[in-house]
Amino acid sequence: TNVNNGHLVCLIIKKDFMEKRLIGILLTLFGVAGLIVAGYYFMNTGKGTYSIKTIILYGVLGLIFFIAGIGLIQNTNDKAT
What we know:
Elements lengths: L4 H39 L8 H24 L6
Helix pairs in contact: 1-2
């Protein structure tokens, strides 16, 4: 390989930041999905098929994932190489 150690370290650091950003994006998407499911269950509670515990569970988990994902995206700094 023609990559010297300085370039290799730079590539590894850049990859680490991109992985954090990707995890943040995935957490945000899971959070949005959880909130959508909670909203869907909330709108269909009249049929008596979904309990309030289920709605709260999906809502809280969705909110936690969403906030964690947004926080991870915001706190991941882009490093210029």
